[in-house]
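Is it possible to get an amino acid sequence alongside its tokenized fold?
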Amino acid sequence: MKTTRLCCTILVTSLLAACGGGNQEAQPAQSPRLLASVVATSAADYTPVVQQLYVSYFGRPADTAGLNNFKNQLAALQAPTDIAGLSAAYSTNASLKALIDSFGNSRESQALYAGTNEQFISAIYRNLLSREPNEAGKAFWVGALDKGSLTRANASLSIMSGAFGNSSTQGQADAALIHNRVALATAFSDAMLTVSQVNSYSGSAAAAKARALLASISNGTNTASFAALASATLDSMSELPSGTTMPTLPPSASTATPEGFWSGTASNGAQVRLALLEDGSSWGVYLANNTIAGAIIGSVTVNGSTASGIASDFNVATRSVTTTRYTGTFTAKNTINITASNGITFAGKYNTAYDQAVSLATVAGTYSGSAITGQFSQAINVTVSATGAITSAGNGCSASGTATPRASGKNVFDIKVVFSGTNCALGNGTATSGVATYDAQSRSLLALAANGSKSDGFIFIGTR
């Protein structure tokens, strides 16, 4: 299977859900194909920093619900995507401060970090850096707490930011340890592929196991072992007592949601297809004459029935990326109307296909179709088994992976696909993740996924 170096897949996250993003750390100038992955307006761009916050405040990996909720809220705020940026913005952005404070003021974090200011700082060092603070470090942070220039709510954030910015030998060792723990936390969250796995990671006993997992590694632990460590720990949680350890989130501005499939026509004639999912993630493409012409990624803030935000628009034909702001209104499961700052409008209607009950048995079969890029499309066959195994082979490249029904019960599957072979456009061994949806009437499957850095990916459209 010759996979596709996509300019469109990495841009398929669309603009109408409680999600979005901010900028990645500064990177060199890149070709238009990569620009949209640099303009971070997708909730997924906040995965690393949310994991860092969980490691810092809770000493454990993010649970699925918490990861999605915090990614979406940071995205809606267009917050920085790195710890140093969050720390710098904490004192000037009231909404961001409230969100960060919800970590530090949570019952879970306060249980980990308690006592006098000296005891509080020492507890953060032990949890985050696996060591006691030196006298100078302790005096600095305790003094800041005593003077009020630092609060307990943002202490963990500030100490982690300080570790990343410390170029001393000890600072570099601390930063390496944090990076390793965040990588293991990410592997753990990524390993939760089924509803039962997601549900098993709840309760104080599960949180303690996950905390012990992160505490067990050092700055020299081989990252190649992280996937196996994460899976083994997750498997051991299946018989633990259930419960909840999720931190309390600030109340959302609205209970209304634009969740679902939306389709319609933009004022420039483009046919728009959007999937806005229950966790705030969103995926979308637009077509010209029934051919994919581009994709968009964006973020949104919802207030009542009003949605507003910012989006990056990738146009396949012109090989260009533009950024636009937009505002509009929606009626849940009915209509949505958007006006962009470039003057283009979109009127969409809710597509009830989102609510169709589907299962792996429903989608099982072999699909003939095309893997699409901004430059070409290639005919391939993809097989999905009744157990969710995905396979495809040919032209010096094979693909294997899994399709898992989402916990929402809607017509969407989470997919993970790994490519193997010397002729794979994404590279031998590249892992991708994304979503897929099945249309029963046309017996067609649409799958969209990107690699870990979101610099490449694929779109597959096929029928059986």
